[in-house]
Amino acid sequence: MSRYLVTGGAGYVGGVVAAHLLQAGHHVTVLDNLTTGTSEGVPGGAEFVRGGVAEAATLLSPEYDGVLHFAASSQVAESVADPEKYWRNNVAGSLELITAMRRAGVRRLVFSSTAAVYGEPAKVPITERSRTAPTSPYGATKLAVDHMISGEAAAHGLAAVSLRYFNVAGAHARHGERHDPESHLIPLVLQVALGRRTHIEIYGDDYPTRDGTCVRDYIHVADLAEAHLLALRAARTGEHLICNLGNGQGFTVREVVQAVRQVTGRDIPTIVRERRGGDPAELVASAARAHALLGWRPRRTDLHAIVADAWAFASEVSS
What we know:
Layout: E1 3-7, H1 12-23, E2 27-32, E3 47-50, H2 56-59, E4 66-69, H3 76-81, H4 83-104, E5 108-114, H5 137-156, E6 159-165, E7 167-169, H6 185-193, E8 200-203, E9 215-216, E10 218-220, H7 221-234, E11 240-245, E12 251-252, H8 253-264, E13 270-273, E14 282-283, H9 288-294, H10 303-318
Parallel strand pairs: 1-2, 1-4, 2-3, 4-5, 5-6, 6-11, 7-10, 8-13, 9-14
Antiparallel strand pairs: 9-12
Helix pairs in contact: 1-7, 4-5, 6-8, 6-10, 8-10
């Protein structure tokens, strides 16, 4: 049985990972300032400390076996409008955390990174060898932290794994997406099904894809959580391992909308808008490295099942 600190553990992904750690029999401390997370997102059985990553300096001790770091600002559009916030929260905050870990003698880290570090890929599926060229300050800050971690591993023996997510979706038990504002496609379409929106906007229907709309890779949040537990086991002293996490297949915007129609039995009106700048036609992950080095493979890959889990959560929250 081990003890872990989960920063941002009151958020969507952090909360599900914390729940999986508890289910595996570990002691979990959740550190979250509730700026975007919610008290409902903290799993029962976890110790909760309200605060930012700076509080890690007073929490961490050699009793901790590792840190799972999810605390970050994560809205692409906001990062373009307010880049200073993202450099401060994501980069400076991560530096504080890594420094606190070194001083406390905590030498294992799993970092929540993102596919946004790749920008617009030259080809798909995207591997870890693909060029990193983020198109937003959000992606740039996550890439900067990845570089920071590599330096810490080489200089000070940190055992680290960065997991680059693609589109996380679905729900696990009472943990689902509660973002405000919401920017992810599946919960936005579900808001239409719930009557909270009148329609869903499709940005561009003239992409070189099978139905003209963008293709994205959707990974179930429970599959994602399982990868984090495997990453803790795979972390090696002085090494920084980077792995993509994705479903390995892509779904178009129209396919997602149709899946929501079929799962919910509700009408989903759509309105086509102009393309948004910087939206690649297709983003699909190769998770071959995660399979080879972590022993991880996604098990919940059916789009309708992912939507059904998200729908069950959204329906319960709205009732």
